[in-house]
Amino acid sequence: MEPKYVIDFKEIELSDIPRVGGKNASLGELIRHVSGGNVRVPGGFAITADAFRLHIRENDLEGAVYGALERLDLRDVTTSAREATKIREAVRAAPLPRAVEAQILAAYAKLSGEYGKTETDVAVRSSATAEDLPEASFAGQHESYLNVHRAQQVLLAVRDCMASLFTHRAIIYRAERGYSHRSVALSVGVQKMVRSDLGSAGVIFTLDTETGFRDVVVISAAYGLGESVVKGRVNPDEYWVHKPTLARGFRSVVRRELGEKAVKLVYSDAGSDATREERVPAAERKRFALTDDEVLELSRTAVRIEQHYSERAGQPTPMDVEWAKDGLSGVLYIVQARPETVFGSAKLPPLSLYRLRGKGKVLARGKSVGASIGKGKVRVVHTLAELSSFQDGEILVAGATDPDWEPVLKRAAAVVTDHGGRTCHAAIVSREHGIPCVVGTGDGTKRLSSGDVVTVSCAEGTDGRVYEGLLEFDREDVDPATLPTPKVPVMLNVGNPEDAFLLGRLPSAGVGLVRLEFVISSWIGVHPMALLHREFVSDKAAVAEIAKRTESYSSPSEFFVDRLSTGIAQIGAAFYPRPVIVRFSDFKTNEYASLLGGAAFEPKEENPMIGFRGASRYYDPRYREAFALECAALRRVRNEMGLENVVAMIPFCRTLGEARSVLSEMEKSGLKRGDNGLEVYVMCEIPNNAIQASEFADLFDGFSIGSNDLTQLTLGVDRDSELLAHVFDEEDPGVKRLIEMVIRAAHEKGRKVGICGQAPSDRPEFAAFLARKGIDSVSVTPDAFARVVTILAK
User: What is the mean pLDDT of each run of 10 residues along the chain (794 residues)?
Assistant: First the structure.
């Protein structure tokens, strides 16, 4: 009986990796054990590794291939690259064995018939037998061919894939990772194309790719065939979905970011095999490529795939999944799935927390990959030939990277690209090597010049920046598993949502303070009243900028609510189900006025620090409508996204009358204390809050002591005054006595008391004082967490 060199995907599973390689085995696994319902996988077949070996043997290529490989000196880049080309040409030129060719043609005819075609369109992809293992991604090492739709073209593409096992980059990749060239063979997959050239495509990770945080699904999406996303030709849309609340049936898209999506890869003209790139119309670029319903469907599908692979492996197995949306039918398909290779191990690596000591001029910005910092001289590279001039430790700047560049990428101090998203080739390789990478700058190759000295920071959330000059930075390595358990719960102060997934890995008791004004200034930048009443903004430039920022939203107010709710949600999701205390905005009038359009709505005050701020704004006609938007954002986070761990907090509440007025405004906006488990806390930062703590405890569920303002108002010292800095002291006996008063009164009423001021972060002895007095929690800045936990544990 003739050996079987071609196997239908329906007959394959993961145990067949030695026969059909990682990609094909995974497709078979999906079709046999996961597909059904919303998990749809296009059909196809695999040409086995035995077919590849027969091709080498029958064409007497052993010496031309493996003999040549054994003689290669990979340190001689030019000569080894030339020899690799000769090897590929020999493999490609040789005819396929007759038995292999006949089985391919029969399988292709059968597949075409299943889709009602004589010669259907297929993708022909390489699948190495060592591919897609948890310890190596083999990202982009071997070739794929799209829109192949004639039998003879399929045969040619199969030979081209076989030859791609010997690209120069693949040879180096195997050598560096200890794979014997003879031990790796190449299977080829032939899969029905999904007409995503008329729809959209992208990549899904079942964890956050930058931090290893495992409770989210991250989706990238762009128009056209998925190669544009994988190869970094486009800046895609991105979506984050929270797994635990998704499982409970909530619409838990906790964040979405609109990408540029400037080009798309589509089928070439009828009658030709292959693809072409075309510009995306401006109107489409300003829309998301996926609806929220589609994002949620893809997320549920990805979670189901992750669960299957985890059960099979006997340990958590985060996944890297490729998807495509058929533009003709609107159906979503899964076209590939593999284990994620950077954070995929059962035990997450220690946290490395980077912090810049200063800032400089920003020369370029894009999306950050990794959470580290690198610095050095810039080397701008436009072509493969220019890579020979690259020196170890330089900053590689390019339009996009190609798999052929990998031998150089690993030697860079950092990578910067014009195009690409967090799932493109440059991002994947940089992540594997622990190199900071800023993708999608748009014009980094124009803004930066070879020889420039720069610092590349990916340690400031999802916004990656290239700074002029060599900036100093600190690095702290923290292994959460080794930190002691403190006697008093320690929470975190989190200002930037983009840091949340990284900080969520710390064993904190939750978040003691989220300052909404930080989210508003960094994620929105527009005064909320200017969004509601643009007619009062006289600055034409401001009006134009507001229109630009809100153009992709149904209304300016929806822009505010969406951005604010996703900012809150990202923090809420990162620490779920631990409590996250969100303080409503506490800008001072001068700070509000600095927001876009803000000057038209803010009075000028001599002392904004004790002026129109906090609770006094929320029920005042000058801000009441804007406060309703803040409430709408919080309501969306809790009720629609299911993040019921989010707690509301009122800042700078001077009197009991103000407290009642604010609670009334919240209730009008659908945030009634007690409904759906909603807790409302009040800041204790005014002496009156401590003096009347018992009465405030009747209106609120807890207190959070703001030591900065409490010290300021107790001692009568402007906390921003350099002249009186020597008087400002959180450990003054009067301040400590007020703290003791509020703790005692609150506990008598069964209310919790925490502290979120700066003092516990800066002064360990103050944290110890709080512990002795029975504080329920201490909230500190992330950089102080390990130190304070260690002190309180003693």
Answer: 91 94 93 87 96 95 86 77 89 96 97 94 89 49 87 96 89 79 90 96 94 94 92 90 98 95 87 80 94 97 96 93 95 93 72 84 90 91 83 92 75 91 79 86 93 92 89 87 89 90 93 94 94 94 94 95 97 98 95 93 91 96 97 98 98 98 98 97 97 98 94 88 83 94 97 86 80 93 85 81
Please tell me whether the peptide bond between 484 and the residue prior to it is cis, using omega within 30 degrees of 0: no
Q: Is residue 688 within 8 Å of 709, Cβ to Cβ?
A: no
330 φ/ψ sector (left φ>0, alpha ψ -120 to 50, else beta): left
Residue 334 bridge partners (DSSP): 323
Task: Kindly name the residue from 424, 458, 631, 756 that is annotated as catalytic.
Answer: 756
Phi-psi region of 525 (alpha: psi -120 to 50; beta: other; left: phi over 0): left
Alpha carbon distance 615, 620 (integer Å): 9
The closest of 700, 680, 705, 679 to 690, measured between CA atoms, is: 705
Distance (Å, whole) CA 288 – CA 236: 9
DSSP class of 394: -
- Residue 235 structure tokens: 């800046």
* Whether residue 161 lies in the annotated active site: no
Which 3 state secondary structure label does DSSP give 267?
A: strand
Catalytic residue among 242, 425, 458, 684: 425
| Strand arrangement of the beta sheet that strand 216-223 belongs to | 253-257, 237-242, 216-223, 200-205, 319-325, 332-339
Residues in the chain: 794
Structural domains in the chain plus CATH codes: 6-193 (3.30.1490.20), 197-339 (3.30.470.20), 351-477 (3.50.30.10), 479-793 (3.20.20.60)
Tell me the C-alpha distance between 287 and 261, whole Å.
Answer: 10
Cβ contacts of 525 within 8 Å, gap of 6 or more: 549, 595, 596
Burial (CB < 10 A; 0-12, 13-18, 19+), residue 244, is middle
Using the CB atoms, write b or e for 395-405: b if 16+ within 10 Å.
bbbbbbbbbbb
- Residues 536, 599: contact at Cβ < 8 Å? no
- Sequence-distant (≥ 6) Cβ neighbours of residue 113 within 8 angstroms: none
Query: Is residue 424 annotated as a catalytic residue, yes or no?
Result: no
Q: Which amino acid is at 398?
A: A
Q: Using CB atoms within 10 A of its CB, is residue 781 exposed (0-12), middle (13-18) or buried (19+)?
A: middle
Q: Which of 169, 110, 109 is nearest to 139 (CA)?
A: 169
